[in-house]
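Instructor's aside before we start: the two examples that follow are unrelated to each other. I chose them only because their records fit on one page, so don't look for a connection. First example below.
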Amino acid sequence: MTAHDLSTDSHTSRLMWLVAGLVLLLQGFSLFAPMAVLGGAIHWPDSLDYAPAKMLPLLREQLDAVRLGYGLYLGYSLLFLVTGVLTVRLAARPGALGALALIAIGAAAASALARAIGILRWLTGSVSLAEAHAAPGLPEESRAAIEHMQAAINAWGGAIGEMLGVAAFAAIWAIATSLVILREQQLPAWAGLSGLVVGLLVAMPALELFGITPPISIVLSTTAIQLWFMALGLLFLWRALRRSA
């Protein structure tokens, strides 16, 4: 290998750390944008539990803000796949990825897909139901039927988006990635140990799928993984700066 090859490899490595650091910091901070928009418009995330009779008129009244907020949230959710792949790649040794790393990447893809499906309920089916619910002269029986449909869509979408996407699959990714960190030793041990704790916290809201009340809310578990993203992002940027020194 020539000196030019070594220089090119060093530049590629530095660029990878830099890009990963920026992506993880973006992942960590970008959730605040949809939270601000949806929180101000429809009191999200509390509105996820609103009765359809309350939620549908609110959704129609704040439709532009809902589309913007959930559009931003959709972007954040799809970015999770990029975050997941970059983190696993830097946590593993150079070369082919092992089975555990591939499991982590698969979980990141499943999480991003499930989140997207959950979000789309608010941009498609619920919007149509909100418009139908507001139709003049609608019989009470029809209004009640629409509300039942909204309750079913919300429960189905919530199970996929929040319980599977935000909780279960994200937890599998975090735990598998943390085990890769601890085994491969390409990152500090604290990154893997803290990731295991975060993974367990993120998994807890999924207990609701089995009729068990989670010990912590999905807001707290999401906050935990956001802080982990930020910590890893700063670590990756520090690695990039160290390689440029």
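Example two begins here.
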Amino acid sequence: MRTLLWVVTLFGIAVGLTVLTQAQPGVVQFVFPGLRVELAFALFVVLLLAFGLLFGTAVRLFRAALSLPRRVSAHREAVAEKRARQELDAALRAFFENRWSRAERHAARALDTGSTAVLAQIVAARAAQAQRQYGRAEQYLDHPTRVTGNDRWMSTFARAELLVQRKRAAEALPLLRDLRRNAPSHSGALRLEIQAQSNAGQWGEVLKLTEQAARHGAFDPATLNQYRENAITGLLLDPGLDLAALNRLWRQTALPLRLLPRVADAGARAFSRLGDAEAAHTCLQESIEQEWSGELAALDLALSEDQESAQALQRGESWLRSHPTDTMLLLALGRLCRSRGLWGKARNYLEAAIAIHPQACSHRMLAELLESLGDAAAALPHLKAAANLAADEAACGKA
């Protein structure tokens, strides 16, 4: 279309010149000292147009020459950009196919191109991270890149995630706080901060964050309850906790959490350490009533060895009628009877535990009991069995 317009314009100019020269058949005269030049008017107009055309062409060529380096640079950048995008596409495809080495290789080739650099940086770091090459992952994240706007958020999140995975909570937490200051309801940042606070043992913060996570739906209910359980257990096991703080924490803990075996175990140990035996037994017995646990029953009986052992023995025997094959309960009853001097009962319980599930500790306890009764000959086979089982358990542990 532009060519057609130019052709029509040129024909129009030619026709106009023809008409003009026929209507005004004059001359153009140039007078210089000692020189006079005359040109037909038509020729003068043609020369003037030719000069204008040549001048315009020269100007355009000059400007093109000046802009040539910039245009060459832009062309090279466009080629590099296209190549980088192809490499990034290949990296993303390999990444989602879990081909970490290939993803890292392709992403590393796209690191130095502007528009893809940050995304390539993160893909390369994540791929190296998936291969447990944490040093390389940090090098990718430290690669000098222009980061602006949303890219900065993405880059910071990737760095924080790497630090959390490497258990470097002290370095990760400032980054995560900054992320959540800019996006308070971001579920990913919230999950990552809970993990970091857990790694740092900041159980009070974990408990607060789980409430926010519940509001924003950051975790499924099972995972959220697991973090709450870990937080409460960690707070209960804090050696700096006094009895008043412990009572306050226990009252503030929801009943379903208090009944969980791990929480009940930690609460009982905390109350026992601070001298409140009654509260310790209450923690354990409430949880046992909710769901049977041989470990909690054994702990309840162990905490009763020094006092109230008669009531504890009755309680243990009552549990045994409902759970006659629970090895931990049998061992705990054997230990309790031995502490009370009920040698016959202690022997019966220990032998029953061995018959159900032989363990090094049960054989050792029975051997010690028999030796204390002066029956060294009967104790010897149990000592050998304890040694053999201990060796087997150690070998399994190494394997």
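Strands lie at 27-32, 35-40.
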